[in-house]
Amino acid sequence: MLKLSVREIIAKIETEEPFHAVAEDYSFTLKIDSYTYYICGAIHDGHQFRKALWKKCLHSEYDRWYEEDPATKQMIQDHPIVIAGCDSRFEYDLNRAPDHAIYEDAWGKKLWKTPLSSEEKNHSLEKHHNFYKVVHALISKVESKYGAAIVYDLHSYNWRRWDREVPVVNLGTTNINNDLYSSFIESWCTTLSTIVLPNFIKTSAAINDTFQGNGYFLKYITEHFKNTLVLATEFSKIYCHELEYIMYPEVIHAIQEGLKKRLPEHAKTFYNQFIG
């Protein structure tokens, strides 16, 4: 893996050079094995939290992990294009617009002992800005090469905080063109429900049940690229014990294996209808 500046990453994208890289400030990674028509993202996978903010933060390391999306990068790492965040959403949230990317409070709890300075905020927002510069270059390249693209925007959510039965997988679709893409939404939901999981977990999938797909990553791409479909896909945290801080590697592996075949097959269907 290379350590590259944003300018160097974009230059490689523009010349369609395959590469594996981490941003020079270690804020995100991008792997491109080949320039195909589908992209995978795990923007909340990151857990890094810069040391200069530790003493100011009221949330514990566990509090932050609880709201992050651990292991989501691993679930999609087999695919040819994968972009993933390295930093915790508690420093800046890549799934929020810049004006709201730095939390004042998080899930009902005040985040900072003392307010962050403008310098501290700008340090984080620069990383947010650079990430989206690369996203823009990447989607531009794929759209220009194929005429359209599909992005699998992978997240997770805490199912134990719900007081009702919730799906193992939720698709959020309120901010995409449902009239145009309904068949791909339905087929993605159906194929996800066929993933076989261990530990007697019954896989279920639903659309707009727990979340509706209001994230900035989806909105940014949808607003700027009219021929790109973004599928916000959230796995409930059945792959860990969110209260005991324990990961279940056998479940993570099963999700990874389940996506290994299903995801490119679904993307190929999209390609054949909208691109091929």
What does this structure look like?
By secondary structure, this protein is an alpha/beta fold. It has one domain (2-274): Zn-dependent exopeptidases (Aminopeptidase), CATH 3.40.630. Helix content is 36%, strand content 20%. The chain contains 7 helices and 13 strands. It has helices at 6-14, 61-67, 72-76, 118-146, 178-192, 216-224, 249-274; strands spanning 2-4, 19-23, 28-32, 38-42, 81-85, 105-106, 109-110, 149-157, 169-172, 205-207, 228-236, 240-241, 246-247. It has a 9-stranded mixed β-sheet with strand order 1-2-3-5-4-8-11-9-10, sandwiched between helices. Strands 6-7 form a two-stranded antiparallel ribbon. It has a two-stranded antiparallel sheet with strand order 12-13. Helix 1 (6-14) runs parallel beside helix 4 (118-146) and helix 5 packs antiparallel against helix 7 (249-274). The longest helix has 29 residues, at 118-146. The chain is globular. The mean pLDDT is 97.
